[in-house]
Write a structure and sequence with these properties.
By secondary structure, the protein is an alpha/beta fold. The protein has helices spanning 33-36, 44-65, 85-102, 111-117, 162-172, 179-187, 219-234, 241-267, 282-294, 304-307, 312-323; strands at residues 3-7, 12-20, 23-31, 75-81, 106-110, 130-135, 140-147, 150-156, 271-275, 298-300. The radius of gyration is 20 Å and the shape is globular. The structure holds 5'-O-[(R)-(carboxyoxy)(hydroxy)phosphoryl]adenosine.
Length: 341
Amino acid sequence: MHILAIESSCDDTAAAVLSGPDQVLANIISSQFDVHAPFGGIVPELASRAHIQAIWPVVDQALAEAKLTLADIDLIAATQGPGLVGSLLVGFTFAKGLAMVRDIPCVGVDHMAGHLLSPLLAENPPAFPYTALVVSGGNTSLFAVDDETTFVRIGRTRDDAAGEAFDKVAKLLGLGYPGGPAVSRKASQGDPEAFAFPRAWLEKGKKEQLTKNLDFSFSGLKTSVVNTVNQFRQKNMMVPVADICASFEAAVVDVLTRKTVLAADKNGHKRVVMGGGVACNQRLRREMARLCKEHGMELYIPEPIFCTDNAAMIGLAGLYQYKAGNTVGPDADAYSRSPLY
Ligand code: KG4
């Protein structure tokens, strides 16, 4: 079975062709980096327009790379939500239109399901069940994944997503957009213990220790970074950018890693999975690997191209949705919030 998958939930237009769950024939991503960089963040209206311009060329390129034509495609899968509705509508409507013209089934895929299953695209995929951390610019959530279509959310951020916090700190320090990689590069030259930025363990009276709570919060940390930077600026002192980045990154990684391992422990899982753009962060990968090993757990992280937004993971999740009998008709709508929440 040949699957054409489309992803347009945020600022990347992506198309992939799969010939089965572990056979990615093409995986094309067109980034809108240049469109949004001057604004220091994503402008939704510009994102929708850029998707409209990119969608046909990206699909054409994916089919060409897979050495197939539309006539060879048996199933179309597209991200239905969550995300920016104007962006989602471009890919999802395009997918429904193609499916209608070709008279083949179409599935609407939850973006989170894609991230949760993306480690299955690797050569050495994890067995079920596992605990998954999805950590990106829009999400920071923990899930128990029982099988290809059963996901239970067990923790989420109460305010900013971790990637959003990275992006905001980068903007504050004038490091550009997207902020995560820029902060991370600076962090590698700094001292992670230079500033004792707060870790939100989220339990009353137990500020300094890991608790049973599996939710996240990054707004207090962000405010603490803002206050620290302002103190230097008010005194006309040079801001120690590398040390601030390193200490901020260490605080984020500390909370993400410890809560993820705690969640796996609670679930009785010996396998941990991580996905989303922030999963590209080297310190996070290193520390998560160390902590998992310490707790006798196996860690599975997809290669970076499958961590960030991509259509291959949507094709994979779409194939399982199709097998479960979940197809969509022409009147199905995109959604901004995930029903998995
Ligand atoms: O999953 P993704 O590509 O897109 C969505 O959020 O939907 O994730 C993008 C996010 C951005 O916030 C970006 O700053 C962050 O992932 N990111 C990183 C790194 N690479 C990307 N954050 C920290 N360290 C990185 N190396």
